[in-house]
UniProtKB/TrEMBL annotation:
<dbReference type="InterPro" id="IPR039921">
    <property type="entry name" value="Inscuteable"/>
</dbReference>
<dbReference type="GO" id="GO:0000132">
    <property type="term" value="P:establishment of mitotic spindle orientation"/>
</dbReference>
<dbReference type="GO" id="GO:0009786">
    <property type="term" value="P:regulation of asymmetric cell division"/>
</dbReference>
<dbReference type="GO" id="GO:0008093">
    <property type="term" value="F:cytoskeletal anchor activity"/>
</dbReference>
<dbReference type="InterPro" id="IPR031938">
    <property type="entry name" value="INSC_LBD"/>
</dbReference>
<dbReference type="Pfam" id="PF19427">
    <property type="entry name" value="Insc_C"/>
</dbReference>
<feature type="domain" description="Protein inscuteable homologue LGN-binding">
    <location>
        <begin position="13"/>
        <end position="58"/>
    </location>
</feature>
<dbReference type="InterPro" id="IPR000225">
    <property type="entry name" value="Armadillo"/>
</dbReference>
<dbReference type="Pfam" id="PF16748">
    <property type="entry name" value="INSC_LBD"/>
</dbReference>
<dbReference type="InterPro" id="IPR045789">
    <property type="entry name" value="Insc_C"/>
</dbReference>
<dbReference type="InterPro" id="IPR011989">
    <property type="entry name" value="ARM-like"/>
</dbReference>
<dbReference type="InterPro" id="IPR038205">
    <property type="entry name" value="INSC_LBD_sf"/>
</dbReference>
<dbReference type="GO" id="GO:0045179">
    <property type="term" value="C:apical cortex"/>
</dbReference>
<dbReference type="GO" id="GO:0008356">
    <property type="term" value="P:asymmetric cell division"/>
</dbReference>
<feature type="domain" description="Protein inscuteable homologue C-terminal">
    <location>
        <begin position="70"/>
        <end position="522"/>
    </location>
</feature>
<dbReference type="InterPro" id="IPR016024">
    <property type="entry name" value="ARM-type_fold"/>
</dbReference>
<protein>
    <submittedName>
        <fullName>INSC protein</fullName>
    </submittedName>
</protein>
Length: 522
């Protein structure tokens, strides 16, 4: 098991293996040099320093990226040491321990070259980690020199204990380093009234949020949300609003960020930005992205939504307008995603959307291939339609906007790239289109329109052919439900075999029959 979970590993693992080796080569060769020199520094001229030292970067963000990479390598090495220790490969354990020792010293030296205002606590921790690494190296060296199997067996538990201690101290040091750097960036934001300095700090903060949830928690804990909303309340920083809001959306992926947003009265600030027509479309789009993040139905914490309900009507109104006036697919995607999420947690949102003619606006947008240009956008639109379809008044809006035709087209949604994310989006579009048809077909006029557009044969095809639905069980269940609703309205529209297998049995029996069908079944 890994001793330290570092977010940067998420990115590193996805890199081509040769490129990864090239990136790590500098770190590894530095380390081997340090082993030979027993961590003694080389005296070099100042003008040569930038060529030889790993941390010769200009920005704090670049330096932190390198530090995180070094930390990830150390964490990986510690895990490998534990694996070799389990197999009693003492020589290998010792050589890897020496390498970790050098990596740790190098990382600390590199960090101290670019950091500022290091706390006494951090210096103490650095000293402690170096001491523990030295003890660990000395311990493993004794094991290599010992040939007594019984003695080695008794030393093994002590080495395991020492290894765990080193990993824990190292993890705490990294936590301190990241916290310190987040504090420095936030201090810059708090104290500066210079646009360029603030922009640089926000940019660095955003880069840190991309390293994973753990860094987002640190930033939130250190007051990052309040500092960023402070920027969004100052007119002199208007040009920084989009970048600042993007950073806020990233931080609010964690619960700590949500709590801080509530404390900072962030939803009111977002509502003000969305309803202020003097802001740019980019600012409105990024504000919509924050709304989409904090209203995600996948979140398990919803305490912040009480204040959201107070501002919901004006937020929904602004988002519908943004959908209507969107100049690009990306802007439409962000605004429609926010609306889709809002419709999940309150039926009042659906009623507001109906009053605002949102159905007509969304259906019209779908006919513009420059605006609704991906399965992801269609997923948001059909989510809104599915949630609105619980309202009886929705049926007439669908008919007037040629919505049944759109739903029929969505049943044919296929991925053009084959990427897993896009394939999953296509499945969601098919499933929600079938759900919407099933709900709306309680209205005879909608059912009649669906039957005339040959929805029944398409639903039968989706039920019987696993490849048509990409083997998705959720699409199958939704299609069976829609088929049964339409069959109730028009029994003559089905062949007898389809009726006997897909409509007449219990839904679970039809489901089991379809999931066990071979592709050649006709």
């Amino acid at each position: 098991l890994p001793f330290l979970s570092l977010p940067s590993s998420m990115h590193l693992i996805q890199v081509d293996s040769v490129q990864r080796w090239m990136d790590d080569l500098k770190l590894m060769t530095d380390c081997e040099c340090m082993c030979i020199l027993q961590s003694k520094p080389i005296s070099i001229e100042k003008d040569e320093q930038n060529e030889l030292i790993l941390s010769s970067q200009h920005s704090t963000c670049d330096n932190l990226q390198l530090l995180l990479k070094r930390a990830w390598i150390i964490s990986t090495e510690l895990t490998r040491i534990a694996q070799k220790l389990e197999k009693n490969r003492w020589q290998r354990v010792h050589s890897m321990t020496v390498r970790v020792n050098c990596h740790v010293r190098s990382m600390i030296n590199e960090y101290n070259m670019f950091t500022r205002n290091s706390s006494e606590e951090m210096h103490q921790f650095e000293k402690l980690v170096i001491e523990k690494c030295s003890e660990f190296t000395a311990f493993t060296e004794r094991c290599v020199q010992t040939e007594d199997e019984q003695a080695l067996k008794s030393m093994k538990s002590c080495i395991n204990e020492t290894l765990t201690t080193v990993a824990q101290h190292f993890g705490q040091l990294i936590e301190l380093v990241l916290t310190h750097e987040a504090q420095n960036l936030l201090r810059q934001i708090e104290l500066s009234d210079n646009v360029y300095i603030t922009e640089s700090a926000v940019s660095s903060l955003f880069s840190l949020t991309q390293e994973g949830a753990h860094l987002c928690r640190i930033i939130a804990k250190e007051g990052g949300v309040a500092a960023l909303f402070k920027i969004c309340r100052q007119d002199c920083f208007r040009c920084l609003y989009p970048q600042t809001l993007r950073t806020l959306a990233s931080i609010c992926c964690v619960e700590e960020g949500m709590h801080q947003l509530e404390k900072a009265d962030g939803i009111l600030c977002l509502a003000d930005i969305l309803t202020d027509n003097t802001h740019s479309e980019a600012t409105h789009a990024e504000a919509a992205a924050v709304i989409a993040q904090i209203t995600s139905p996948h979140l398990t914490f919803t305490q912040h939504l009480s204040s959201f309900l107070e501002n919901m009507e004006e937020i929904v109104t602004a988002l519908v307008k943004l959908c209507q006036e969107a100049s690009s697919g990306e802007v439409f995607l962000l605004a429609s995603a926010a609306l889709a999420n809002i419709t999940f947690f309150d039926t009042m949102a659906c009623e507001i959307l109906l009053q605002l003619n949102a159905m007509k606006i969304l259906l019209a947008a779908c006919s513009d291939k420059h605006i609704v240009d991906t399965p992801y956008s269609r997923d948001q639109v059909v989510t809104i339609l599915a949630n609105m379809s619980i309202l009886d008044q929705c049926a007439s809006e669908i008919i007037q906007g040629n919505g049944v035709q759109l739903l029929m087209e969505m049943l044919f949604e296929r991925s053009s790239s084959g990427h897993s994310a896009e394939v999953a989006a296509c499945e969601r579009v098919q499933q929600k289109a079938a759900v919407t048809l099933a709900r709306l077909s309680r209205d005879p006029e909608v059912a009649d329109a669906a039957i005339k557009l040959s929805c029944i044969p398409r639903l039968v095809k989706l039920c019987r052919s696993p490849t048509e639905r990409n083997n998705s069980d959720s699409v199958l269940v939704a299609c069976l439900a829609a088929l049964r609703r339409l069959a109730a309205m028009s029994p003559d529209g089905l062949e007898d075999s389809d009726f006997q297998q897909l409509v007449k049995p219990r839904l679970v029996d039809s489901f089991l029959l379809c999931t066990n069908m071979e592709e050649s079944f006709v």
